[in-house]
Design goal:
254 residues; alpha/beta; Glutaredoxin; Glutathione S-transferase Yfyf (Class Pi), Chain A, domain 2; 2 domains; globular
């Protein structure tokens, strides 16, 4: 079998979820980074839909982080991301689905509402890891890309306020679910831990996140981070990254 190929956005938390699963299982793979907006022709051609991550395994393109992780679990069962016990397995899957729905899109919309008005910062963030010439071109194109992103994700003041409330409720639940061993299901690391920690990475920015984020975030984002830094969930994300993020199994090709 040839190495799987991951098409991804470097900055994205849903993409981080899949990167982490690949690295946790030690699956050698190739990462090919894309630029938001400019990714559409390739991803639509490959999958008939517009979202990344997309993992290509033996010529088959798989979209959606949950489906990708299910495929990885079949491809390499050890180390597992799902508990062996049937009830615990269902619990881990339920929490994965919950955080995918209640953290993923709502953290994204809430944070983007604060980030997107700053053209220079936003363009640097979305072009993380690309060369200076590419970043300059992307910045020039960014006003149009920003308008599409706002329309596509419903990014406005009311939407951001609703999303913050949804994300807060999910963070409250996360803090209730953390067990004495520091895990969400039973006493070991699972897809539930990975999902919640990865989807909160845009807020926490743990040092183990594989791509360096641009400095000088907008003041509104800094205020949000300062507020949430005091929460148990913040410390849990930091500790989960420190203990379980591990080394990369990837080769970059972009």
């Amino acid at each position: 079998m040839s190495a799987p190929v991951l098409w991804h956005f470097r900055f994205s938390h849903f993409n981080e979820k899949v990167r982490w699963a690949l690295d946790w299982k030690g699956i050698p793979h190739v990462r090919r980074a894309l630029l938001p907006g400019l990714h559409l022709p390739r991803i639509l051609w490959m999958t008939g839909q517009k979202l990344v991550p997309v993992l290509v395994v033996d010529g088959k393109a798989i979209a959606d982080s949950t489906r990708i992780i299910e495929t990885l679990e079949e491809l390499r069962p050890d180390p597992p991301l799902f508990p062996a016990d049937a009830a615990e397995r269902r619990r881990a899957a339920e929490l994965e689905d919950y955080f995918d729905a209640e953290l993923g899109p709502h953290v994204r919309r809430w944070v983007f509402h604060e980030v997107l008005p700053d053209t220079a910062y936003s363009a640097r963030l979305l072009a993380t890891g690309f060369g200076s010439a590419t970043a300059l071109v992307y910045r020039a194109l960014f006003p149009g890309i920003r308008a599409v992103m706002r329309a596509d994700m419903g990014i406005d003041g009311d939407g951001a306020q609703r999303s913050r409330a949804r994300a807060d409720a999910a963070i409250d639940r996360l803090e209730r679910e953390i067990g004495q061993a520091g895990h969400l299901v039973a006493d070991r690391f699972s897809v539930a831990d990975l999902t919640a920690a990865a989807l909160l990475s845009p807020l926490v920015l743990p040092p183990e996140f594989p791509y360096r984020q641009p400095a000088s975030a907008p003041v509104a984002v800094q205020r949000i981070r300062d507020e949430y830094r005091r929460r148990p969930a913040w410390r849990w994300v930091e500790e989960t990254y420190r203990r379980f993020r591990g080394a990369s199994a990837a080769r970059e090709d972009s």
